[in-house]
Amino acid sequence: xxxxxxxxxxxxxxxxxxxxxxxxxxxxxxxxxxxxxxxxxxxxxxxxxxxxxxxxxxxxxxxxxxxxxxxxxxxxxxxxxxxxxxxxxxxxxxxxxxxxxxxxxxxxxxxxxxxxxxxxxxxxxxxxxxxxxxxxxxxxxxxxxxxxxxxxxxxxxxxxxxxxxxxxxxxxxxxxxxxxxxxxxxxxxxxxxxxxxxxxxxxxxxxxxxxxxxxxxxxxxxxxxxxxxxxxxxxxxxxxxxxxxxxxxxxxxxxxxxxxxxxxxxxxxxxxxxxxxxxxxxxxxxxxxxxxxxxxxxxxxxxxxxxxxxxxxxxxxxxxxxxxxxxxxxxxxxxxxxxxxxxxxxxxxx
Length: 350
Ligand code: CP3
Fold this sequence. Notes:
By secondary structure, this protein is of the alpha/beta class. It contains 16 helices and 9 strands. It has one domain: TIM Barrel (Alpha-Beta Barrel).
């Protein structure tokens, strides 16, 4: 409903609910971020990254910045996947230019000390930011809540930082599967509660980011990516049966048919390496597809960008599509190229 009580539909939600749109709804992963001068200004003012996340006024403001500029069909709440380890009492720091740093959780002894319940009071500012954004957002624009998938969050908790291939977590899962399973179980339960809180605070849909799914062999992918995601979807829907959920098992395009089948997500976000015929034939008939422009072609711009946009639309535009990047936008992306992308996608009539 809008403020006068009229029912308003959200094209983004319609696609998740099963209705293809002639003009695909559009947003960008990491759309609030360093490529925007207004983000950099507020980031500086906030001091630390976590301070930006946990000050509702600031988090709401940076969530809305890309909407004002580009009028996207969805806003994603500004936060990070590592707020869950933070609420579990792990030390989480973001060092400028270096990415996240945590105290490594890399032995069964250390895992035995892991709290089972997060302090959700620490995450209340995220919920407050969601309420503020929902109150300001146009009724046609969807608000997305999110969490990291347990596997991806665990890779940072175990290693204490990002690594090129997440070898520390993979090694721990082979050597100490019981200890590793405890980390995953704790993340599953707390992610369910966190996502339910986000729905209550005004999120219209949820995305589960499994950025590091692609480093796992099939058996491990089944156990550490698909199964925990399935449990989260089931746990959320037990309380909110019609919850709309997007999964993003990055780099695992070949395993998307089984991921979709097993998890029950309403949509999958795909990266730019996906094979269009596999996705069309075995994925898009069952769920909506979100993606999948290469973020580097958005930096390059020009005719290469036009061609790449047209390729995504030609590959998936006849089915249920949410136009997006295949991963987050990079800080060096020119704003004019984002404008070029928005214009071209909105000119399309599938
Ligand atoms: O999409 C959005 O605009 C919402 C905000 C959002 C952020 N992180 C803000 C952020 C979302 C959805 C995330 C998810 C996230 N965080 C993921 C999964 C998706 C992905 O991109 O792979 C992961 C793996 C993380 C962990 C994380 N946070 C890393 C590895 C880094 C450092 C790398 C980087 O880009 O700086 C962060 C920091 C971070 N999270 C920034 C932002 C805007 C940059 C911090 C800054 O401004 O200094």
